[in-house]
Automatic annotation (TrEMBL):
One of its GO terms (molecular function) is lipopeptide binding. The chain crosses the membrane at residues 191-215. GO terms for biological process: antigen processing and presentation, endogenous lipid antigen via MHC class Ib; antigen processing and presentation, exogenous lipid antigen via MHC class Ib; innate immune response; positive regulation of T cell mediated cytotoxicity. CDD domains: IgC1_CD1. Gene3D superfamilies: Immunoglobulins, MHC class I-like antigen recognition-like. This is Ig-like domain-containing protein. It is a single-pass type I membrane protein. It comes from Marmota monax (Woodchuck).
Amino acid sequence: MELQLSVGCEVHPGNISEHFLHVAYQGEHILSFQGTAWEPVLQAPQWVDLVIKDLNQDKGTRKTVQWLLNDICPEYVNDVLETGKSELEKQVKPEAWLSSGPSPGPGRLLLVCHVSGFYPKPVWVMWMRGDQEQQGTQRGDILPNGDETWYLRATLDVAAGEAAGLACRVKHSSLGGQDLVLYWGGSHTSVGLVILVVLACLVLLFVLILGFYWIRRHRSYEDIL
């Protein structure tokens, strides 16, 4: 005889929880605990009704099951979530650098983009030319570092004369939407930094225009006097 038991709960905002307790016999789902009592599933064997009748007559066990599902399970889940909250919210920014790998052949280059030290694990890395993704990008496996962060490298096989203008773009949750961009043959920069510089230039231009008009008005006032 083989019995399987599936039990658990889901906790939602506002201390709202949902629970389940299912019992299977020989791989077939036969009954569940619903609310305050045991109930058979549709098309359950007829003998299951006898089992449920006996189970529901045991009020002590039913109250214990209710207590476990309604109180203990949500409390346990909340404790686990609270304990792991700092780990779930942990964000470590990646470091990135470029190098060249072994030549794939005469007149060709293997461009390598290294991304390391990031957490959590999901990351997007792609060789780009402007806004065009380079479909020849080959990404390796995401490998663990010794400090619980991750490492990934992405390569691109190109003709030596076509390397200029290529860049490696990195997207990661820790970057706050400011992609990390490294240009082949140049230094890396951040898209957010470029935007910041442009805004700073606009502010400076606005200040210069205001200063120009102030000087003109001041001189006009002196001429009148």
